[in-house]
Amino acid sequence: YMKYGMRTTVEGILVVYERNHPHLLLLQIIGSTFYKLPGGRLKPGENEIEGLKRKLTSKLGSNYPELVPDWKIGERVATWWRPNFEDVMYPYCPPHITKPKERKMIYMVHLSENERIVVPENIQLVAVPLFELYDNVQNYGAVLSSIPQQLSRFELRRIINN
C-alpha cells in the first residue's frame, strides 16, 4: 500500500445455465469452503478491462493460444470498497475514509456457447445456482451473496442455437 497506493481488483461474473436455471461459475480451492469469482489484482496503471481479460486468461485460459477464450467483458455490475486492512468490504466507500485500501470492480463476462475453460489442478470450478447465493452471506460472504440482486437489473435469457 505504501508503494503503490490503493489495490484495485477486478472479477468476472460468468453465468451458465444448468437445467434451464442460471448458475454462477465460482472458483473453489479443493478441500476448502472458500468460493471466489475469477479475477484478481490489477498491475499499477493497468486498464480494468484488459486487466480482467489477463486475469481470466491466467486463471481459466489454455496454454495454447488458439484455445484461449475471446473474453467479452460487459457491464460493470458492482464496485466494492475495503476501507482499511481488515477483511470486510462495503458496497460504498464510507465518507470519512479518504484513502481506501482496495477497490473491487465486478463485471459481467459474456461467454459464447462453446467456450473452452481450463481449470488448474488445485482449483475446482463450481456452478452455483443464483437462488443459492441469494441472501446467503454465511456461506458465500457479502460480495457473492449480493450478486443475484445486482443481476436483477438485467434480463437473463438463455440463447439456444438449433
Structure report:
Helix content is 19%, strand content 33%. It is an alpha+beta fold. Strands 1, 2, 3, 4, 5, 6 and 7 form a seven-stranded mixed beta sheet that branches. A hairpin with a 5-residue loop joins strand 2 and strand 3 (35-36). The chain is globular. The model has no long low-confidence stretch (mean pLDDT 89).
Short note summarizing the structure:
19% of the residues lie in helices and 33% in strands. With 162 residues, it is α+β, with helices and mostly antiparallel strands.
Report the average pLDDT across residues: 89
Structural class: alpha+beta
Shape: globular
Biggest sheet, open or closed, and with what strands and sense? 7 strands, mixed
List keywords for this structure.
7 strands, 4 helices, NUDIX_hydrolase_dom, 7-stranded mixed sheet, alpha+beta, nucleus, NUDIX_hydrolase-like_dom_sf, 162 residues, single chain, Cleav_polyA_spec_factor_su5
List the helices and strands and how they pair.
Blueprint: E1 7-18, E2 21-29, E3 35-36, E4 39-41, H1 48-60, E5 72-82, E6 102-110, E7 123-129, H2 130-133, H3 137-145, H4 147-151
Parallel strand pairs: 1-6
Antiparallel strand pairs: 1-2, 1-4, 2-3, 2-7, 5-6
